[in-house]
């Protein structure tokens, strides 16, 4: 059984916002936007595997990433083109806002 990745037209805005509402998941999206496809194991050092699995599922089912097996490990890829097609400008706006330090 393969991993669930929604089709572009099935990506829901509320799922995208839910996925991006967690600081760890937002960090993953920022990293993928800057670095491109990245092995799952090289992101979020020191986080338990069960927690990573949960975050990958939320990001994947939210339509933000594609998680694919390459040999014995999985690689994460940001679905930038799909997100831009479905919600033009949203990802860029989120990434810009994520770079701005929080007030206070």
Automatic annotation (TrEMBL):
Residues 5-98 form the HTH arsR-type domain. One of its GO terms (molecular function) is DNA-binding transcription factor activity. Coiled coil: none annotated. InterPro entries: ArsR-like_HTH (IPR011991), HTH_ArsR_DNA-bd_dom (IPR001845), WH-like_DNA-bd_sf (IPR036388), WH_DNA-bd_sf (IPR036390). CDD domains: HTH_ARSR. This is Transcriptional regulator. It comes from Streptomyces alanosinicus. The lineage of its organism: Bacteria, Bacillati, Actinomycetota, Actinomycetes, Kitasatosporales.
